[in-house]
Write a structure and sequence with these properties.
heterodimer, A: mainly beta, seven-stranded mixed beta sheet, 11 strands, globular, B: 119 residues, mainly beta, four-stranded antiparallel beta sheet, 0% helix
Amino acid sequence: DIQMTQSPSTLSASVGDRVTITCRASQSVSDWLAWYQQKPGKAPKLLIYKASTLQSGVPSRFSGSGFGTEFTLTISTLQPDDFATYYCQQYNSYSDTFGQGTKLEIK
Amino acid sequence: EAQLVESGGGLVKPGGSLRLSCGVSGFTFSDAWMSWVRQAPGEGLEWVGRIKSKTAGETTDYAAPVKGRFTISRDDSKRTVHLQMNSLKTEDTAVYYCTPYHEGSYVYWGQGTLVTVSS
């Protein structure tokens, strides 16, 4: 199975900061990589799919990049609503895998 | 707007069985590949398995921790997908979500159903 490793596990930042979360795959997943935001007690919300395509309705301050084994999620200007946990997820013909999550905290 | 409603969760003893169901509306279910994803209390998301559409062979794939114990099936006439869970372990305790694929990702989610495996 493909392993997904996110870094950092926890990130402390302030409103207005630019933040980047990294996701590394144990083998190439091409561009089959998605990013989600999850808040406590809620289902995940899709932010980015196919590595860099912004899901409809998601603010443009979110962006994704990468291909193969290394991917990033960037939030250009943190807003109060962005403090949450973020997950990457890969898809392939055999199975999916999620990263372990990155908790974005208020500094 | 797509809607997914999971049901069938509850408390079960280790070694027991449980069958979860997920009823869907708002999209063409028969064309959809459906996955189950779970989240243990305080933990991250874990992919459980998926079933492809009938036109794609209705084949299934499973994560290693559940392979041989869990079975996913679908009933297109009832717009329902099922997760049969046997030989349950305490580590299977989680909220279980069903979700359809979209470009290798998951747009729509239900509210989830809680499965607790405990003696």
